[in-house]
Amino acid sequence: MNQHPPxxxxxxxxxxRAAALVDYPPGLLPQIKACNAVYHVSFPLRRDDGxxxxxxxxxxxxxQHRLPVKGGFRLTSHASEDEVTALAALMTYKxxxxxxxxxxxxxxxxxxxxxxxxxxxxxxxRRYTFELVxxxxxxxxxxxxxxxxxxxxxxxxxMHDTYLALSHGEVDASGAVTGKPVTQGGVRGRVEATGRGVxxxxxxxxxxxxxxEKVGLERGIDGKTVVIQGLGNVGYHAGRFLTEAGARVVxxxxxxxxxxxxxxxxxxxxxxxxxxxxxxxxxxGTETLEDKDGVRGLEWECDxxxxxxxxNVIREQNAxxxxxxxxxxxxxxxxxxxxxxxxxxxxxxxxxxxxxxxGGVTVSYFxxxxxxxxxxxxxxxxxxxxxxxxxxxxxxxxLVDKNFSPERFDEVAVGASEEDLVNSGLEETMxxxxxxxxxxxxxxxxxxxxxxxxxxxRKVALTYQERGIFP
Length: 471
Ligand code: NAD
Hints:
Elements: H1 7-19, H2 28-33, E1 37-46, E2 52-63, E3 69-76, H3 81-97, E4 103-110, H4 118-134, E5 143-147, H5 153-166, H6 193-206, H7 209-215, E6 225-229, H8 233-244, E7 248-253, E8 258-260, H9 267-275, E9 286-287, H10 295-298, E10 304-307, E11 326-328, H11 337-345, E12 349-351, H12 353-356, H13 359-373, H14 382-400, H15 406-412, H16 418-444, H17 448-466
């Protein structure tokens, strides 16, 4: 499904649409668009039964206009050079868009994760990391992988440990990979960051009177109906935050089937059931999908559709049948360029992946900064700020000769924890990012995706120009 049409070509079609609206010296736009390098590694895996299997993996460096390059790696059976190249390109544009000082990269290992034991997975990840080290494709100043599909804290911890073992004495070694468990130098808030960012992005969009008038919806999240494809890291957390804000998740589309309930599903219960190894086919309200790619579920009636599983799921074939008014792209590349045009013509608002799922890499950036500075956010000032607030409140009490209630006192006299600071930095990034894109879209009378690409291209181009590489 991810092969037709080629994913990198899809990303480039979006790029070309935006590139046609900006004016740069010859050569600059092709340089931004080209992928700088793709490394293909293959190595033998000894399986638990003693047999040997050859494993294939990739790491793509789309743009080294800034170093390190940054991007997750994924474990999927459909991994390919085209896929990592496209995803690396999206990382370049995403990082530029939300002002992260990185070039774009992506990695993948071509395996169906569930076919391997934990011991086999550990051997695969450690060997893949070793291959990256040998090619200078990992390190806090060159390339910083992070989590993506099928990769969680455990896989990242193996990668981190392997890198530490091979970089003996490198003081910033922990900054070589992000998404680490907190005890290994990770940052609080990273696990839910992408889903939380998706929530902030949707919240900003539905708060815009102009955009909501265009799609014929009321302002605000409260009461909005949502369908989510993929209840993994991104989909589950996005669903959780949307529900907390008053939205109703009426549909969940997973690989094994789909659930629909117009009164709203219990996202937490469905997640817990799947996390314990259950299938959603065992839950009440299950619909059997007509095909395993979830095409039917995507066409369900709702206000907001959140594709949060895989790429190229909204294509020219199903785009005319999509009934959602807003597509909130939690996944990377869920919408083909043709489908995007069809939906633009139908007045469906698309919140593009390169903006909407940038919360993950944003908080990965915070983790990297934490690793390079070797101190937890808030450690130096949290207590000082809480005491300063206490002194200020006591002074006010003396002045007015009245006391705050103990609850009010405790509420105000606090210093920010690491998690508070991370979530606040994430919110700031998503809010600022939305208004930048929306501003460009209004100014140039273009859709949000093209506006996002225009902004990214401008920022990458500026780096090349300021360095004197292009006039
Ligand atoms: P994940 O592995 O945690 O979850 C993916 C979910 O999609 C799983 O529950 C899986 O069962 C489901 N799925 C797979 N195939 C499906 C199908 N055909 N139909 C319906 N559901 C299907 O992965 P994730 O980290 O949540 O990533 C999901 C998407 O978000 C990917 O496109 C990824 O590149 C993107 N993304 C992830 C992050 C991150 O921080 N994890 C950041 C930015 C973007």
